[in-house]
Design goal:
Elements: H1 2-53, H2 55-61, H3 69-90, H4 96-106, H5 110-118, H6 120-124, H7 131-144
Helix pairs in contact: 1-2, 1-3, 3-4, 3-5
Length: about 160
């Protein structure tokens, strides 16, 4: 009986160790995935920098047609800004509310608005429930909002104490 109990205890310890190892493995896997994601976006941003600097590369990278080289560079830069904002969310340094606030401000920029309109077809091809598709729908909604600058009322003058 004692041998049977010892066997069960050993199995419990092994199972606990496997569970702990599995948790560590999942954490390590997530860390590697995040590092790969950062590396991927780093490369993408480097490509955008090169395309912005060299009109011949910009023509190879951009899908936008019938624009001047200067406009193509502006649209690529708008795309770069969007990628950077999304990267912040993907790697966890930006919260969703911060992302939406930043995109709300960016969506008031005429170059970003043009970039967004010209690249709508590409976003339609994203899986509907992907994070990027959901962000895209949020930006679409933001673009549709009327622009109302925030007007802050000046503080009331301090009342002086009269004797």
């Amino acid at each position: 009986m004692r041998a049977a109990l010892a066997g069960h205890t050993s199995l419990g310890v092994v199972a606990a160790m496997e569970s702990e190892s599995s948790g560590e493995l999942c954490g390590l896997t997530e860390e590697i995935r995040r590092a790969n994601l950062i590396q991927y976006y780093r490369r993408h941003l480097e490509q955008l920098d090169r395309a912005i600097d060299d009109p011949s590369l910009a023509a190879a990278l951009s899908t936008v047609q019938d624009v001047t080289p200067q406009k193509r560079r502006q649209l690529l830069f708008a795309h770069k800004q969007y990628v950077l904002i999304m990267l912040g969310l993907f790697i966890g340094i930006t919260r969703r509310s911060e992302l939406l606030g930043t995109l709300r401000v960016l969506s008031r920029n005429p170059v970003f608005r043009e970039y967004w309109e010209r690249t709508g077809q590409q976003r339609m091809d994203l899986p509907e429930e992907s994070l990027e598709a959901r962000i895209g729908r949020a930006v679409d909604a933001t673009m549709a909002e009327p622009w109302r600058p925030v007007r802050r009322t000046p503080p009331a003058p301090a009342m002086s104490a009269s004797p």
